[in-house]
């Protein structure tokens, strides 16, 4: 009975992870999450471990990992500790790409900040010029 209390419905899983029931079903079809346990009424029931796994998948997705790589990682994970090394290599490669993306984004942000500063300086100079013209009148 205590185990039943830890099972989450689709709605509860959605609330716990912030993703829709549709996305949960998609993740299952895409083989990112293993087939979910079902109750006697054939309704999906998620475990706390499923919540943590989906949160990890979301983190991978938010870092730009393609679904195909996520699927590869999920498949390796299903095979257990024997796949620790290939999972590590996959995550390390993704981390390298993520760091490169962050560096590009920082460079873009720096260029954007410089352009914004140029426009602000231009506007400040225009306002100062107008104030000077008004003072001359």
Mean pLDDT metric: 92
Distance between the termini: 86 Å
Shape: elongated
Q: Which CATH first-tier class of the domain at 1-64 would you pick? A: Mainly Alpha
Enumerate the spans where pLDDT stays under 50 for 5 or more consecutive residues: none
What percentage of residues falls in helices of 4 or more residues?
over 70%
SSE string, helix = H, strand = E?
Answer: HHHEEHHH
CATH architecture of the domain at 1-64: Orthogonal Bundle
Would you tell me which CATH topology of the domain at 1-64 applies?
Answer: Multidrug-efflux Transporter Regulator, Chain: A, Domain 2
The order of strands across the largest sheet is 1-2
**Portion in beta strands:** under 5%
In DSSP terms (H or I, runs of 4 or more residues), the helix count works out at: 6
Rg, alpha carbons: 25 Å
How many E strands?
Answer: 2
Largest sheet: 2 strands, antiparallel
The secondary-structure class comes to mainly alpha
Give the oligomeric state of the chains in this entry, treating copies of one chain as homo and distinct chains as hetero: single chain
Keywords: DNA-binding
Pfam family, one: MerR_1
InterPro entries: DNA-bd_dom_put_sf, MerR-type_HTH_dom, MerR_fam
GO molecular function: DNA binding; DNA-binding transcription factor activity
């Amino acid at each position: 009975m205590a185990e039943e209390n830890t099972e989450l419905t689709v709605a509860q899983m959605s609330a716990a992870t912030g993703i829709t029931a549709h996305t949960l079903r998609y993740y299952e079809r895409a083989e990112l999450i293993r087939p979910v346990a079902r109750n006697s009424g054939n309704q999906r029931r998620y475990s706390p471990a499923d919540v943590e796994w989906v949160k990890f998948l979301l983190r991978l997705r938010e870092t730009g990992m393609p679904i195909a790589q996520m699927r590869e990682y999920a498949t390796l994970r299903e095979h257990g500790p024997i796949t620790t090394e290939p999972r590590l290599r996959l995550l390390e490669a993704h981390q390298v790409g993520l760091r490169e993306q962050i560096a590009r984004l920082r460079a873009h942000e720096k260029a954007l900040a410089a352009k914004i500063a140029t426009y602000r300086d231009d506007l400040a100079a225009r306002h100062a010029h107008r104030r000077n013209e008004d003072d001359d009148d």
